[in-house]
Amino acid sequence: QAAKVATKFTPAQEDYQKVYNKIVQLVEDAGDYDDGSYGPVLVRLAWHASGTYDKETGTGGSNYATMRFEPEAKHGANNGLNIARDIMEGVKKEFPWISYGDLWTLGGVCAIQEMSGPKIPWRPGRIDGFATEATPDGRLPDASQGADHLRSIFYRMGFNDQEIVALSGAHALGRCHTDRSGFDGPWTFSPTTVTNDYFKLLFDERWIWKKWSGPKQLVDKKTGTLMMLPTDYVLTQDKSFKKFAKAYADDQDLWFKDFSKAVSTLFELGVPTQQFVSSEPWILKTKEEQEE
Ligand code: DDH
């Protein structure tokens, strides 16, 4: 009798492209949800899965996808991300071989690229970890604070001022929900398209404190429909942050380039280099490029 040989499936780049394509499908099937796309909330999931990294202890980051476990799943900063995790669960059913860390970061890459953003170099290699590897609360930024807080949070991940500002431009996408963070509204008029409008609006609009019983936030004086968090507004107040924010407001190509690099780094935080299956990150194709 022949012995059963267990053959391990080794996925190639084209297999990850299939996962990417499945995510595209689900993002587009959002119906009435928010602005008609799950893209922004998928970007937020990828970011919160990665932004827990602490370079001193080497803990946190996207490697183990510990947001699957309580209490990390229930951290206030992660409110509402169950929606994104549930969507990704649908993808995982079809491609059970992919790790959660790879899946969630790929979701972020896919969402950014499909919403007209820059290409985000990405490679697989993250592994599923255990609840004991979950990170303590307080590693993600608190929107009510200022420049010192931003620096202490992002320097801990290994980023500098320029990268803090570049990454913050992700708020071109999506919106705040009163039932998730307590804040309310979108940052731009096109919350499902990656543009440098976030930076432009920061400088071009007049921002006033919103009069309401909710948490302290700003609204644009002209329409009263857009918002900025205290941590967004500080990018125009702090001298070092302001220099970069102004440069990105003036030059979308420059921001795309810097945003792509910083996001690619962000999504790899906490992953030991030897775990990656390829020495160089890949550039996956957008849906549109594959139709050409
Ligand atoms: Fe953010 N973010 N973020 N953010 N974020 C929120 C939503 C979204 C902060 C606070 C909030 C980044 C940085 C910061 C996205 C991406 C990124 C919300 C609203 C709050 C609050 C949540 C809700 O109510 O649904 C703070 C503070 C910071 C900071 O200090 C720098 C970064 C670096 C990214 C990134 O992706 C690189 C996205 C996308 C959203 C919209 C989500 C949605 O559902 O829409």
Task: Please characterize this protein's 3D structure.
By secondary structure, the protein is mostly helical. The chain has 2 domains: 13-139 and 260-291, Peroxidase, domain 1, CATH 1.10.520; 147-256, Peroxidase, domain 2. It contains 11 helices and 5 strands, in the order H-H-H-H-H-H-E-E-H-E-E-E-H-H-H-H. A 3-stranded antiparallel beta sheet has the order 3-4-5. Strands 1-2 form a two-stranded antiparallel ribbon. A hairpin with an 8-residue loop joins strand 1 (175-176) and strand 2. It is globular, with a radius of gyration of 19 Å. The N and C termini lie far apart (50 Å). The mean pLDDT is 96. Bound molecules: ligand DDH. Residues 40-41, 43-44, 47, 80, 141, 143, 150, 167-168, 170-171, 173-177, 180-181, 183, 229, 231, 263 line the site of ligand DDH. Ligand DDH binds next to helix 2, helix 6 and strand 1.
Structural class: mainly alpha
Largest sheet: 3 strands, antiparallel
Strand order of the largest sheet: 3-4-5
Which consecutive residue ranges, at least 5 long each, have pLDDT under 50?
none
Radius of gyration: 19 Å
Shape: globular
Report the CATH topology name of the largest domain: Peroxidase, domain 1
